[in-house]
Specification:
Number of strands: 16
CATH architecture of the largest domain: 3-Layer(aba) Sandwich
CATH class of the largest domain: Alpha Beta
Number of helices: 9
Number of domains: 2
CATH topology of the largest domain: Rossmann fold
Radius of gyration: 22 Å
Shape: globular
Bound molecules: S-adenosyl-L-homocysteine
Length: 382
């Protein structure tokens, strides 16, 4: 077991002091308990090296009481910044880049933002790294759009870290706790990074959702796609599709795929991803997944397989009722929130969909979170 100086203060890694094997057992017990009325859960698929897996790293910038510039995370439940230099679950290069940004600030006379007064410039730094390709995106979140020595700053940063492939300035002048604002300006490179999953390439922009543990994501998608038992003849829905990862990875085994996602940027990336991978049998729609399914159902459309991968808050009764009207043979539910998964499986059951098998995948080692895949089958009424 590794030690972290910020354990407990940061609150990010609830299980850091628990041997990894025990973490996996505990997660298995929890998911099995939640799903006990539905189906059996296979043992949790763990990681060989359960550290430094996070490909997305965020640091908030500010000053300590003595006025020294610090960067790190908000102490759990507060707006006090806990300084963090290294983290056991974050990508190590990303941590090093954040440290360099901090060290460069004084020589560029760049002020950090003060949440109380609203003065200052740099608010957050977000780093996204691509596991397979090594590409790295740095997002500098600033309070105002005017960035006086931006080119020199980028040059200085890239001199220390030539592995950075793109730098984006994101402007957030709001007083909310949201990290990213709406306006963006690319300072260097293409403004996105490309990573590979399941043999496909994916373009990731600053705001689009991308699974934070790429090694485990491949295992998760493989399980989900196997559970769909595709033969090449199916019309498949990929709901809550993000940048289209599951649908694109599954497309070769299906007749056609329809993806739906609420986030505009993610849908745009999904379209680009399909082209980049020369996938021609997939279409993406920008809509609320529930509303979209209701529309599909009211138009008399059919689907053979529905994948859904909703956020932690789970899906909705509206969505599940519409799925029942569409009447797919199989539903594959990918979930990062086992509680809402259990609730939704109850709704599915009422609508004639029974859970067959569940797999848990440890996407978030050292934390209390677990990811799960459940295969459901339409039950014929006798
Ligand atoms: N399947 C993708 C994304 C899963 S994360 C992947 O594996 O990468 C959940 C996604 O649901 C996010 O992209 C989020 O933007 C999207 N989302 C959240 N609420 C939604 C809604 N009501 N309708 C459609 N998509 C939604």
């Amino acid at each position: 077991m590794k030690q972290c100086p910020n354990f407990k203060k940061c609150g990010g890694c609830q299980y850091l002091d628990m041997p990894y094997e025990e973490q996996l057992k505990k997660k298995h017990k929890e998911v099995s308990q939640l799903l006990k009325n539905f189906c059996k859960v296979h043992p949790v698929v763990g990681m060989e090296d359960p550290y430094h897996y996070r490909n997305k790293v965020h640091a908030v910038f500010g000053r300590d009481r003595k006025g020294k510039i610090i960067s790190g995370v908000y102490k759990e439940g507060t707006h006090t910044i806990l300084p963090v230099d290294v983290c056991l679950i974050e990508n190590e290069k990303a941590d090093a880049i954040i440290k360099t940004v901090r060290e460069l600030l004084p020589s560029f006379k760049m002020k950090v933002y003060d949440e109380d007064t609203g003065f200052g410039f740099l608010r957050h730094v977000l780093i996204r790294t691509a596991h397979k390709t090594g590409e790295i995106m740095v997002v500098l979140v600033t309070a105002s759009p005017v960035f006086p020595s931006k080119n020199n700053f980028v040059k200085a940063l890239r001199k220390v870290h030539p592995e950075i492939t793109t730098v984006v300035q994101n402007v957030n002048n709001r007083g909310t706790s949201m990290v990213l604002g709406d306006k963006e300006q690319v300072l260097y490179g293409p403004g996105f990074i490309v990573d590979e999953l399941c043999g496909k390439k994916f373009r990731i922009s600053s705001k689009s959702f991308y699974q934070i543990n790429p090694i485990q994501t491949e295992k998760l998608y493989d399980l989900a796609i196997k559970a769909a038992k595709l033969t090449g003849k199916e019309t498949v829905v990929d709901a809550y599709c993000g940048i289209g990862t599951i649908g694109i990875a599954a497309s070769a085994g299906a007749k056609e795929v329809i993806g739906v996602e609420l986030n505009k940027d993610a849908v745009r990336d999904a379209g680009t991803n399909a082209k980049m991978n020369k996938v021609n049998n997939i279409r993406f729609y920008n809509n609320d997944a529930g509303k979209f399914m209701v529309q599909m159902a009211s138009q008399g459309a059919k689907a053979d397989v529905v994948f859904l991968d909703p956020p932690r808050s789970g899906s909705t009764e509206e969505f599940i009722n519409a799925v029942a009207i569409l009447g797919p043979e199989r539903v594959v539910y990918v979930s990062c929130g086992p509680d809402t998964l259990a609730r939704d499986l109850g709704w599915f059951k009422k609508k004639g969909y029974e859970a067959e098998e569940a797999w848990a995948v440890d996407m978030f080692p050292m934390t209390a979170h677990t990811e799960a895949v459940v295969s459901l089958k339409k039950v014929r009424k006798k």
